[in-house]
Amino acid sequence: MKNLDYLKIVIVLLAFSISITSCNREFPNPNNPSEDDVLTTKDGLYALSIGMNQYYTTSVLRYIIETPGITTREFGVTNTFLRPIELARGGNELSGDSYATYYPFVGLARAKGMAESILNSVDNVDLSDEARASLIAYASLYKAMTLGHLILMYEKAPIHNSIDGEAVYSDRAAVLDECISLLETGKNELTTHSVSSDFVSKVLGSEIDLLASINAFLSRYNLIAGNYAEAISSADAALSSTSVFAYDASNVNPIWSSTVNTDNLDAQSNFGLIGAYIPEAGDGRVDFYLGADSGNAIAETGSQPTSELLGFFATSTSSIPVYLPGEMMLIKAEAYARQGTPADLANAVIQLDLVRTKTDDAFGVNAGLTDWVTSGGDANSQADILEEIYKNRCIEMFMTGMRLEDSRRFHPDLLTAPNPPNTTNERNRNFYPYPTVERENNPNIPDDPAL
């Protein structure tokens, strides 16, 4: 992870000043440069890019993974802190007053604001074509990631932050379209101009393949939007490389910090899956992600058995993939399956089996199973294929922040109101209520979803 220079403090404060809430505050400090200094020079924009990545990877990513992970039973709650208990019980017990809804919303908005500041300022700075393209592509990726995760958790989201605290909310389709448009813009910039060596050495580093990451998120959001051909082609492009968020002693893995290194949360055994979704015997992904039995969740949240968390969260400096190769294969499988022709179903099974039989995954996420038909699957049943894809997404993509979206997409009718707390079903909310602090300050906030 890149070290921040003297601009670190002002970058963090800048995140507050561009929050979508109306709580605008100024923190003048004569030892720090002004906002104009940050946004009108190349070094300032580079430093803001570093700060955006640092804030996203060490602060925001925790809530991207943890919040929906508790809702969908990936995490077991092992302490009596109110926030995780409210998430684990869910239903109508979870309100906008809870910090469970506040932290992901505000964190994503602040990181999104940093990306917007870069995009809004880049044309006002004297830059080489390559540096300009690099900044636009990088900020477009981060805005798409943050905006995308907002719409995966909340029913509507503001596409653009607003200094006056009155951001306008857009529906799911419009937000997904904006995510795709941002990523296409970034992709086009990198198709026209290569990433500058200066940007690589000072900001990007060797851990992230920027173009491949853009293609991965294009694949993800096109799938969710129902653009299946585009999802398949983008997944193919992303499979050419890998990217990770890297950590060090000063900037530690956020899930290790909140889970492995505490007694607040543990991984639920069997990935929190029950019934037909329990992993098959011999599935190598169990040992990759889960260690020894670690007890049980507290009774108030279901008493589920828990396991030691390994995988990408085993140590304070474990890297977290920006995306998984297995996700790209499963996106292709789902995109084919949802189109439903006999040829598409055959292609879906091919992609599904690439995940099931994988033994050479770049990150070691290897199921090592037999092909699906040999294990009893019906290659002619669209419903059965989709269910097997969902099961493998839950296992392959454990703790990626995607299971809530997956559960809604594959099982849209799972929840109906009224919904008393249920600690065993695969999700206990469809979307989260908006934070009360946002409701009190923004007249444009929508009504909370029923569930």
Detailed description of the structure:
This protein is mainly alpha-helical and about 450 residues long. About 50% of the residues lie in helices and about 5% in strands. It is built from 17 helices and eight strands. It has helices at about 10-15, 35-40, 40-70, 80-90, 100-120, 130-155, 170-190, 195-205, 210-225, 230-240, 255-260, 285-290, 325-340, 340-355, 380-395, 405-410, 435-440; strands spanning about 75, 155-160, 170, 245, 265-270, 290-295, 305-310, 320. The strands form three sheets. The chain has a four-stranded antiparallel beta sheet. It has a two-stranded antiparallel ribbon with strand order 2-3. The chain has a two-stranded antiparallel ribbon with strand order 4-8. A hairpin with an 8-residue loop joins strand 6 (about 290-295) and strand 7. Helix 3 (about 40-70) runs antiparallel to helix 5 and helix 5 (about 100-120) packs antiparallel against helix 6 (about 130-155). The chain is globular. Residues about 10-30 have low confidence and may be disordered.
